[in-house]
Amino acid sequence: MFNQGLSLDQAPPIAVVLRFFLSLPFFGTLLAILMILYPHEIITPSHPVSLAAIHLFFLGVITMSMIGALFQMQSVLGGRPIPAPGGNALIIHTFLTAGVLSLCSAFLFTLAPLFILAAVLLGAALIYTANLILPLLFGEITHDTLRGMRLSLISLAITALFGIVMASSYANNSFSPSYDAIRTSHYSLGLIGWIATLIIAVAFQVVEMFYVTSPYSLWCKRNGFRIITASLALKILWLFLELPYVWVFDGILAALLFGFIATTVRRLRERKRRVSDVSIWFWAFGLLMLCVSLISHLLYLITSLQTFEIAALLGFGTFALSIILGMIGKIVPFLVWFHLNAAGYMETPIMSNVIPAPRNKTLFILLIAGSVSTFLALLNPLFFRIAGIGMLALFVVLGYNLIAATRLYRHIRLSGKRFEFSPPQE
């Protein structure tokens, strides 16, 4: 499946990845608090609370987890480990955490200096991430997942640049005539270029490997990212030149994503490994939410009703969160098992015991409950309070799962016994 095996020397320390994952419950809890306290404001587009919540979710939860996963995936798939992973992870994580908190505070309290601080911190974190990992993806080893990772990191860097421009506009309370084009480009590159592209790239490897499915077609792998690149580039050009029919590019991207949904669902249904696996539930629900998001966006393009635009964003966010929760339930147990096993500990737990299936099922039920309540908030904003309570419970359980896995790992490292290999007798 992979071009070369993963050795302990290649793999980053487990603390590198867990540093990012353990931040999710913190930012998720802050988001849940906003949902509970400000149900009306959070569902109002362009309201400061809504903008704070959007960036808290897509930066503090989604991007934080995806960067953590990239530190691991680069070593597995790229064959060129990230240099000084511990130090670089600390720098990125610190700047990203401080940047997200600064930006959300800037929106909530309308403080110009915080917008400047957020632009510096987030710009540094995201562009540094792209600059660190992107060159490692251009080496002797190349495959379609790496091509998708390249596109996603390039999109992340450009998204950050647009974000810096927008933060400066908020700080100066001065918006250029191109502001709408910048904002739409920022969202399109962030949601499709960064998040959707990386999930698709990972699916090409993970779905086939974890669930033992038939491979995605070569046409899909080779041309999917080309279509995304061309569509996003032309859409941005059309936006800045104020040309008509920009919706055509949204239609092309939607068609591509519908194809990804159908192809992935078919492979999951026809998988050869038929054992029960909770992570499949997360994939199935995430793909359903992506479908809801795409349909809502197309309805918004036809009707211009803001409700559909909000539904599209809620659906896309739920899609990304569902996939990430499913993957964390796979990645964290694997990392605990791999690092302990590679170090020769006798008490290495099997993966299914690191995060037991019942706790993952609880997480899935809370995700469903929170998502349903969130969509009901389109009818009555007070449902956002119920959704906030559900999301708060979800991130509490997620935090417990991650902390329990971390404590198990540390306990075995501190008190476990290792195999002793005696040198051969002469």
Short overview:
This protein has 426 residues and is mostly helical. It is built from 15 helices and no strands.
Model description:
This protein has 426 residues and is mostly helical. Helices cover 78% and strands 0% of the residues. The protein has 15 helices and no strands. α7 runs antiparallel to α8 (179-211), α12 (306-342) runs antiparallel to α14 and α12 (306-342) packs parallel to α15 (383-415). Mean pLDDT is 91; it is low at 1-7 and 422-426.
Q: Can you give the mean pLDDT?
A: 91
Q: Strand-and-helix sequence, N→C?
A: HHHHHHHHHHHHHHH
Low-confidence segments: 1-7, 422-426
**Which term fits the overall shape?**
globular
Number of helices: 15
Taking all Cα atoms into account, the compactness measure Rg is 21 Å
Structural class: mainly alpha
Taken as a percent bin, the fraction of beta residues is under 5%
Give the termini distance in whole angstroms. 40 Å
Sheet bearing the most strands, described?
none
Question: Helical amount among residues, as a percent range?
Answer: over 70%
Number of strands: 0
Strand and helix layout:
Elements: H1 14-21, H2 24-37, H3 39-42, H4 48-78, H5 85-109, H6 112-133, H7 144-172, H8 179-211, H9 218-241, H10 247-269, H11 278-303, H12 306-342, H13 351-354, H14 357-376, H15 383-415
Helix pairs in contact: 1-4, 1-5, 2-4, 2-15, 4-5, 4-12, 5-6, 6-7, 7-8, 7-9, 8-9, 8-10, 9-10, 10-11, 11-12, 11-14, 12-14, 12-15, 14-15
